Amino acid sequence: MKSYRKELWFETHRRRELINITGQVEQCLAESGIREGFVLVNAMHITASVFINDDEPGLHHDFEVWLERLAPEKPYDQYRHNGYEDNADAHLKRSVMGREVVVAVTDGKLDFGPWERIFYGEFDGRRRKRVLVKIIGE
Q: What CATH code is carried by the domain that includes residue 94?
């Protein structure tokens, strides 16, 4: 059994962004040489998420609207957490969208459904953050 580990770093320009990282994860898989196994991709920050869904702009807009209804950014004083930082909404959005994904590796490729892609969801951006890619298999 082999294992591979790599950190992907992101610096977003807006508070909230969704970034398709499928290509970067596929590159990690190629570097690993693993043909059969599993890929774990997880956000290493409590205000960011990794999830799988369709890469469709309308859906991304719908995520933004839906998440903002669930946990609106403002007014900041609606949250007890907000004091040093005004990011309580980002913590809540991450809880809804999830921390990580696991994808099967078959014949050296991510074993996806037809429209599945891996996304990094940033909910408190404008600073440097990372995602862990861990691959195990043969």
A: 2.60.120.460
